């Protein structure tokens, strides 16, 4: 029997598919493609981390863990967050191990939003933020970081967007897709807006380890902010563990208890094997971090220089592994640029508008790929631009 109506909820029907996915599907069946499109490291998870997962299986650790995650892992996360982010959290009551940073963002929003509550979402940003606010029953209010400020949101822009319904500011620094990172002073100004209007900061700090020039500051470490920050991070980027699906979220006990209620019903617990792997990574496996950072730094410098040389103006991003060159000089919009580049030169970049309207005029080029591939990609992009 043919169904006449859709069973999908209206708000799901109205969700747009991710602009990144749509673009990758276009490469199916193409050969000799160089992808600067992916948002994941080209490194394989360190061997000792992989081995720990294998050993956990050999030892028969195949059942559920506590809802919040293995206590030992939460203790190791607390130590790591204390050392690197300079904030202390109680592993028993303030840390939840999640299925990637993705789940952490989802349960954080679902735990804090009542229908109609507003969240200031700083764009350009990772594709999931606004849809997850909507799915949690809230209303995303887009605050477009300005290109004149290298896409660093200004406190006055947030101030202008606050209403009586505003509950939180959602921010990611270092940022995907722009690579921009707020300075400590800029973070303090944003914190000032949160304090003045009694807002939470939902801080996605998944790129915290991938910072190349300055020291890293966490939002939760800014004076007075620990109690109003939900700190999201994970293992995907710095430990090259995207496929393991493991992240964590640190927040004051009341918010953690709220998130845990959702997590326990929806997820139960993150993968046990992945938790044992991450535990090893936190205890012993971060020794190659400096090497990884150095390698990304070299690649960043090469890509930024090359893009600027060919007339695609590009500021030097402070973190993550993305560059965000301006392509307006080509006269094309970001989608046409990316489509033609793919078909004429077989290089994948992601149109800036996939990350919000304010990303129009830009494309995201990831440099999480080998120097050899990057050289060839830059050669092809130069050929493309020269022949326009
Ligand atoms: N936040 C940002 C800013 C990201 O770039 C990504 C992944 N690309 C995520 C969250 C999701 O990470 P995870 O794999 O931990 O779910």
UniProtKB/TrEMBL annotation:
Broadest EC class assigned to this enzyme: transferase
GO molecular function: pyridoxal phosphate binding; transaminase activity
PROSITE patterns noted in UniProt: AA_TRANSFER_CLASS_1 (PS00105)
Keyword tRNA processing: no
Domain annotation Aminotransferase class I/classII large: ranges: 31-381
One record GO biological process: amino acid metabolic process
Keyword Acyltransferase: no
Names of required cofactors: pyridoxal 5'-phosphate
First and last residue of the signal peptide: none
EC number: 2.6.1.-
Pfam families the record matches: Aminotran_1_2
Keyword terms, alphabetized: Aminotransferase, Pyridoxal phosphate, Transferase
Entries under InterPro entries matching the protein: Aminotransferase_I/II_large, AspAT/PAT-like, NHTrfase_class1_PyrdxlP-BS, PyrdxlP-dep_Trfase, PyrdxlP-dep_Trfase_major, PyrdxlP-dep_Trfase_small
UniProt similarity note: Belongs to the class-I pyridoxal-phosphate-dependent aminotransferase family.
Protein name: Aminotransferase
Species in which this protein is naturally found: Sporolactobacillus terrae
């Amino acid at each position: 029997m043919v169904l006449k109506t859709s069973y999908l909820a209206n708000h799901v029907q109205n969700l747009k598919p991710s602009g990144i996915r749509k673009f990758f599907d276009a490469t199916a069946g193409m050969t000799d493609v160089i992808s600067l499109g992916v948002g994941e490291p080209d490194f394989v998870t360190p061997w000792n981390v992989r081995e720990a997962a294998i050993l956990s299986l050999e030892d028969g650790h195949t059942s559920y863990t506590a809802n919040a995650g293995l206590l030992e892992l939460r203790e190791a996360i607390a130590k790591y967050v204390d050392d690197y982010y300079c904030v202390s959290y109680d592993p028993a009551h303030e840390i939840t191990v999640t299925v990637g940073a993705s789940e952490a963002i989802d349960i954080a929003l679902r735990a804090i939003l009542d229908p109609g509550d507003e969240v200031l979402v700083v764009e350009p940003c990772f594709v999931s933020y606004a849809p997850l606010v909507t799915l949690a029953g809230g209303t995303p209010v887009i605050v477009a970081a300005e290109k004149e400020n290298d896409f660093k949101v200004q406190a006055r822009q947030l101030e202008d967007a606050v209403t009586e319904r505003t509950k939180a500011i959602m921010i990611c620094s270092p940022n995907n897709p722009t690579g921009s990172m707020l300075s400590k002073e800029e973070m303090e100004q944003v914190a000032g807006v949160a304090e003045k209007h009694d807002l939470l900061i939902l801080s996605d700090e998944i790129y915290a380890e991938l910072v190349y020039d300055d020291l890293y500051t966490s939002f939760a470490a800014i004076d007075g902010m620990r109690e109003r920050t939900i700190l999201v991070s994970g293992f995907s980027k710095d430990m090259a563990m995207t496929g393991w699906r493991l992240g964590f979220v640190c927040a004051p006990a009341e918010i953690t208890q709220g998130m845990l209620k959702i997590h326990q019903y929806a997820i139960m617990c993150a993968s046990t094997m992945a938790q044992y792997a991450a535990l090893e990574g936190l205890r012993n496996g971060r020794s190659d971090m400096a090497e990884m950072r150095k390698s990304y730094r070299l690649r960043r410098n090469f890509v930024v220089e090359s893009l600027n040389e060919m007339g695609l103006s590009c500021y030097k991003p402070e973190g993550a592994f993305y560059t965000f060159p301006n392509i307006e000089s080509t006269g094309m919009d970001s989608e046409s640029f990316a489509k033609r580049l793919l078909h004429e030169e077989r290089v994948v970049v992601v149109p800036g508008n996939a990350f919000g309207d304010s990303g129009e005029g830009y494309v995201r080029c990831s440099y999480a790929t080998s120097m050899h591939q990057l050289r060839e990609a830059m050669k092809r992009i130069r050929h493309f631009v020269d022949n326009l």
